[in-house]
Write a structure and sequence with these properties.
Elements (H helix, E strand, L loop, with lengths): L1 H4 L15 E4 H6 L10 E4 L1 H24 L1
Antiparallel strand pairs: 1-2
Bound molecules: zinc ion (ZN).
Length: about 70
């Protein structure tokens, strides 16, 4: 939160939008987003945060679907 309020930029490679959320870098990378923060926390802009949420939701529903089959 502190990073974002200081006006940090999105950490996704090639993105120059203002940060909206700061998240755990490992989680962001697991969602398929490439970040260049180098720290434990990464800043995401609105668009990439949406993408992150979508990706992590997809993961969960995929797992659930897999469980349903067995
Ligand atoms: Zn971005």
């Amino acid at each position: 939160m502190g990073l974002v309020s200081k006006g940090a930029k999105c950490n996704v490679d090639g993105c120059d939008e203002n940060g909206a959320r700061s998240l755990n870098t490992a989680k962001v990378e697991r969602a398929g987003l490439r970040v260049n923060s180098g720290g434990k926390k990464s800043v995401l802009c609105k668009v990439h945060y949406k993408e992150y949420k979508k990706e992590s939701k997809d993961d969960r529903s995929l797992e659930r679907a897999r469980f349903d089959k067995f």
